[in-house]
Amino acid sequence: MVRIMIRAVAIDVDDTLCMTEEASFILENEVLTAMGRPPMPRSLHLQTWGEPLLQAMPKRSPGLDLDRFGPLFHDAMTRHVSDGLLDVIPPENLHALDELLAEGFRLMLLTSRTGPEIRHMLEPDHALSSRITAAYHRDNTRFGKPDPRAFDELLSQAGLAPPECVYVGDSPGDALAAGGAGVAFIACLQSGVRRLSDFDPRYVTASISAFPEVVPTIKTLPGYGG
Question: pTM, whole model, 2 decimals?
Fold first, then answer.
């Protein structure tokens, strides 16, 4: 019998590769305030965290003019990124990516963000440019998480069978998508937004308390080649 080996690691962005829930909460409320709208409570942001931004915002601010919100959000996000307030990848996480590369794994991103929301992280001068081989988001995939078909383009374009890939994410929807696609899932609990009990255990292969633990954890999985 041929043993299937893990060849690639796909990684979620928000609250996995970098901690973003609180930073996003502050950013979104800044835009709402600029629009003359009341800020949302943190509890509401947490309840809808993980949903695509423009799908979640009508729940976070009922009656919101999305056509006006979108450009204002983009401008504010660009400023927050430039000021180091958003999408900061800690050095230890970059080191973990380097360790995965040294193990021979291909690294890819799979996020619920849109193309414009992730574009700055894919620029040639970004720390990810030499580490990530591809990025999949709402604008270049036909389906989004938690639909298992969110992995269709990633697997087909990389020439991977589902057991040859591991996905690292932070939400039950991430687990559902991965599990449904036949991809092993590692739950990253670093943000504290979710607990392991929030996940369907059928879809969780392993869990980690901080992203750098992904390296030794993958080495414990059956498909690790060592």
Answer: 0.94
